[in-house]
Write a structure and sequence with these properties.
The chain is mainly β. It is built from no helices and 7 strands. Strands 1, 2, 3, 4, 5, 6 and 7 form a 7-stranded mixed sheet that branches. The chain starts with 37 loop residues before the first strand and ends with a strand.
């Protein structure tokens, strides 16, 4: 591209994302370079209440069939929230997600692995609608 007198927008070919993109970069910070809070729920079975306003990353090891719920979707932050869920052992059990979750590119939740699966979630309206998508499918950690 030659030099012109009027600026032109350049779109990098190697960088594209949607609003469901991972909220955490490779350095453990969100995209505003603020330290990210993590919450480890340990072993979880039967019910897992993910308290969204307590952390940006929520981690659990499933030890039984689990129903997930999202709490702490406060209007005090303007209704828009982004968070990640890390699940280990997800393929070993049945996971039931809230009805408000609309999955990226599918009518159903993505397949979870026996290793760690990372999912991204976003709500623009205090949890009335929650968009969910797969970030990492099979992390051996």
């Amino acid at each position: 591209m030659g030099i012109t007198s009027s600026p032109q927008q350049v779109t990098p070919a190697l960088w594209s994302y949607t609003y469901v993109q991972a909220p955490v970069n490779g350095n453990g910070y969100d995209y505003f370079n603020v330290s990210v809070r993590r919450k480890n729920y340990g072993n979880v079975s039967t019910a897992w209440a993910v308290t969204v306003d307590e952390a940006a990353v929520h981690k659990a090891v499933l030890t039984g069939n689990t129903t997930v719920s999202f709490t702490g979707l406060a209007a005090s932050v303007g209704g828009v929230m982004v968070w990640q869920v890390e699940i280990k052992g997800g393929s070993l059990f049945t996971v039931t997600w809230p009805a408000a979750v609309k999955w990226d590119s599918s009518a159903s939740a993505p397949s979870l692995s026996a290793n760690t699966t990372v999912l991204n979630f976003f709500t623009p309206d205090n949890g009335t609608t929650i968009y969910g998508g797969l970030a990492f499918a099979d992390i051996n950690a």
